Amino acid sequence: MSKDELYTWLDQGSTINNYYQLNLDIVKKGIVLERTFILRKEAFIDTKTGKLDERTKKVINKQVEDGIKVYLVWEETARIKGLWEDFVIIDSECVYVKEPTGSVLSGGWKVQIKKRKDEIDTYIKKYNALTRTYSISLDSI
Predict the structure, then answer these.
(1) Residues 27-72: pLDDT tens digits?
(2) Given Cys at both, which of 18, 21, 71, 96 links 36, Cβ 3.0 to 4.6 Å?
(3) Residue 55 phi, psi dihedral angles, 5° rounding
(4) Each residue's pLDDT tens digit, 68-105
């Protein structure tokens, strides 16, 4: 994720804000919502402080304050471990997967909905590896 993409979470009136409002509605219903940001370390760490830049902290802290469980994984680690993929686990029966097509004509992406148990289990294992094994403590950054 680029800085521009991450910072859109702060922009009032952006499309992502509508999505975020739906997320907040889910949290208000008592449903646990988890989000993992996969960021390039060199792009998001302030070279003077060795910590996350202030706007990135603002995005993450806002979501934590709103009741979303936030994880941070360095992109470099996710790529090395083969865990670099854009997916959303909806529940135990459905996973939304966004995959590159390599074609500009199709917008460069295709979306698939996975419903087979073996496929869902694969994504749950990937997610657990990302969040439980490779995530960075938010307090340390």
Answers:
(1) 999 999 999 999 999 999 988 888 899 999 999 999 999 999 999 9
(2) 71
(3) -65, -35
(4) 999 999 999 988 888 888 899 999 999 999 887 776 66
Domains of the chain: 3-140 (3.30.870)
Q: Which of 58, 52, 96, 55 is nearest to 74 (CA)?
A: 52
Q: Considering only CA atoms, which of 83, 88, 65 is closest in space to residue 134? A: 83
| DSSP β-bridge partners for residue 70 | 35
Distance, in Å, from the CA atom of 44 to the CA atom of 50, rounded to the nearest integer, reads 10
Q: Residue 3 gets which letter from DSSP?
A: H
The separation between CA 73 and the C-alpha centre of its own chain, rounded to angstroms, equals 9
Amino acid at 27: V
Q: What does the block give as tokens for 12?
A: 């009032």
Question: CB neighbours of 32 closer than 8 A, spacing ≥ 6?
Answer: 69
